[in-house]
Amino acid sequence: MMNFSMTSAIKVLLLWSALPFLFDIPTIQAQDNRTKIDLRHMQWDTLTDPDRQALNRIELGRYYGRGVSMDSALFYLRQAPEYLDTTEVSLISGLYYLETGRVHNVLGDGELALHYLEQGEALGLPDSLYEVRIDIRSSKAGVLRRLARYEECTELLLEVIDEASEQQDTGIVAISYADLGSIMTVTKRPEEAIKYYERAIELRKLQGELRNRARDIMSLATVYARQSQFDQSIPLFKEAYELNVTAKDRFGRAMTASNLALNYRDVQQYDQAERYFDEAMEIYKQLNNPYRIASTSSMMSQMYFDREQYRKVISTLEPLYDDPIIQENLRLAGRYAKNLSRAHAAIGNYKKAHAYVSDQLTIQDSILTDKISESVSSAQVKYETSLKEAEIDRLALEDEINQTRLHTQRLALGGAGIGILGLTFLLFRLNRQKSTIQSQNNLISTSLQEKEFLLKEIHHRVKNNLQVISSLLKLQSRSTEDLAAQQALDEGRSRVRSMALIHQNLYQEEHLAGIYIGKYLQELVDELIATYKIDTKKVAISIDTPEIILDVETLVPIGLITTELVSNSFKYAFTDERAGQLAISITESDQQLHLRIADNGPGYDVAAVSERSFGLRMVRAFADRLQAKYSLSGDEGSQSDFWIQDFKKVVPTQAPDRNI
What we know:
Blueprint: H1 6-22, H2 33-42, H3 50-64, H4 70-77, H5 91-106, H6 110-122, H7 130-146, H8 150-166, H9 170-186, H10 190-207, H11 211-226, H12 230-247, H13 250-266, H14 270-286, H15 290-306, H16 310-317, H17 324-327, H18 330-346, H19 350-414, H20 416-479, H21 483-508, E1 514-516, H22 517-532, E2 539-544, E3 549-551, H23 552-573, E4 580-589, E5 592-599, H24 614-625, E6 628-633, E7 639-644, E8 649-650
Parallel strand pairs: 2-4
Antiparallel strand pairs: 1-3, 3-8, 4-5, 5-7, 6-7
Helix pairs in contact: 3-4, 3-5, 4-5, 5-6, 5-7, 6-7, 7-8, 7-9, 8-9, 9-10, 9-11, 10-11, 11-12, 11-13, 12-13, 13-14, 14-15, 15-16, 15-18, 16-18, 18-19, 19-20, 20-21, 21-22, 21-23, 22-23, 23-24
């Protein structure tokens, strides 16, 4: 590959622009993508020149990277280096790094995008390739902004402005000023944001540009609106609105109209607000943009709240509530549920208000759980990486120790002085490696602590979520007069509480993977005693278990089986005045657990229990889940035995805190 002169650069740029026509490469404006792509693939064997081969693949990567298929974009871009030296200062190398960085940025891999763009920047492209060089630097600034590295991004944008100004490239200068305005807005520096946006707008005006000028004016107006300076923001939004009308930019017009509506709503000019909201909604419907329809409806509902038009809130939001666009966007769904619950409560429809409140609580918990899950995944990766690095360091240290020992032994044969020197070197290296391993251990310890904290928070959130469900069942039970329905709801609540207790113990204990079975069963039985109002002076209850910790997958089915059978004993075994006994025991032998629940009640006819009984089906289902053989007997009281084959114990780290 040769270095490009100015003439060569122009030739390649002409080739770059002519590629879609010379080789039938699909262009961004292609009407029939599939046909053009097939034609392009038919031409592969006709290209022999390495430069053209490389440009061909970069162009395909550029095309696919514009929203067609990111996997295909990377597929072609990865082939380009086979035909060029990517370390050589050339136009094609610059284009390769530029497009590859852009694709990784779209895929959300900012660090990898930054790597490629920095490689392109390091080429040091000459002024004859200014367009590619400045595009690389501008794209790098965009990645830095996406990574929230605002100071680095600001510094780079100021350099880009200086470079583009020397080349009299007012387009790049205007874009960079607007980007600086955006950064200043995000970092809460409104005065500087206003300064940069005004510079961008002035340049757009000189260029005669309408759409981008309208966009920058909208951004400037938003800065004023966030400071409640509506006397400044409303005229600016109107100016942007007129520019979008002139430019025939319907989406820009709708965006400006919805912003105008929000400003008029905030100054309580509701008629004007409603007019612009209606216009924005009409355009979004014409453009078939469901997300904008949904978000604008949410904003309109707030205006109706301000005017106490609660039925309008309901008629605006309820038809859209089950739309996948809303339900897949948790924050938007949360706003819908909140506003609908408030509106129904305001008109006295408390049943529906209650239902939407339940939805809102579930959505809020899902949002937090998603955040925690992301953090846990990050902590897990960091932790596992630290372990691998520590293991590599340990193996390297062992190898170095062995090599140094061997070397020292050889040196010792050559003389005591050299041997002492070798020993000193060994001690120095050992000390340095010890420090390195200590640093790795500290990192592992920190990562592990972070992981444990996040896992505890997840268990806490799950417990809270189950507690909400339990409370809802309790409220529903109190509000129904049907005794059978009340009993069913109470039983369901007990089952939910049996699961909530597991997660409560998990975030309170040192063991994140499991809890002591005895402690759990004691707390579970205490809950059931309170639910069924059992007089413990008349019913003697004993719990006998080994000192073992069981994992969650084992505890949940054991807890639900125990809840069902103990509930039955409390309901049917102790109905008379005689003294009662209930015994729960777990023993471990022959690699299996034996769970036994027995009472001294009147017993029952096992054969008379309906096969359709929910309780019986549930007990059998969870017994199967534990791969347990079981025996149910109703002679001389009830006895239920389960021989559990599938269970997992957790190694304890400290003695249990039990008081059973």
